[in-house]
Design goal:
By secondary structure, the protein is of the alpha+beta class. It has one domain. Helices cover 41% and strands 14% of the residues. The protein is built from 5 helices and 5 strands; from the N terminus they run ααβαααββββ. The strands form 2 sheets. It has a 3-stranded antiparallel beta sheet with strand order 1-5-2. A two-stranded antiparallel ribbon has the order 3-4. α2 crosses α5 and α3 crosses α5. The model has no long low-confidence stretch (mean pLDDT 80).
Length: 152
Amino acid sequence: MTVQLIEITEDVADRFHVLTEPAPCQIGDARMIIVDLLGTEPSWPLAVLVDHVCTAYAPDGERLQVDLRCREGLADDDLRDEPALRRVRWVRATRQALRDLTDAGEVRWSLPSDDPDEVDHPEVEVLMSGREPRAFRIYVGEPLPDGSVSLA
């Protein structure tokens, strides 16, 4: 199987953004998991925090099998429960919760690290099904500081 990165149109990117926008309650749930985890260890890498939230709330390893182009008669709500869309929504909820905690001074970030698990990757690679599998990267937000996160 060959996977190649492709560019997507602005309207598809905008639709993906809308379909994966986390609700305030999801950001709150992500925040709760982050604070609970930070209470158990001195610090956690960003990637591990994101993974814990997604493991708790979203299926793992599911491919995106949905046509993101706008089509007549297809409501956004019909697409919101797609497993991969749910996972990206929880990635975005975790990132927003961390940004809120950072802005409030409730967490602090270590100095940048050489550990690849501690490097912020604000894009998500999504595989789309079809005759020829393909992938694209979706930018999910402003970068967060590099390093591990700990309670302030």
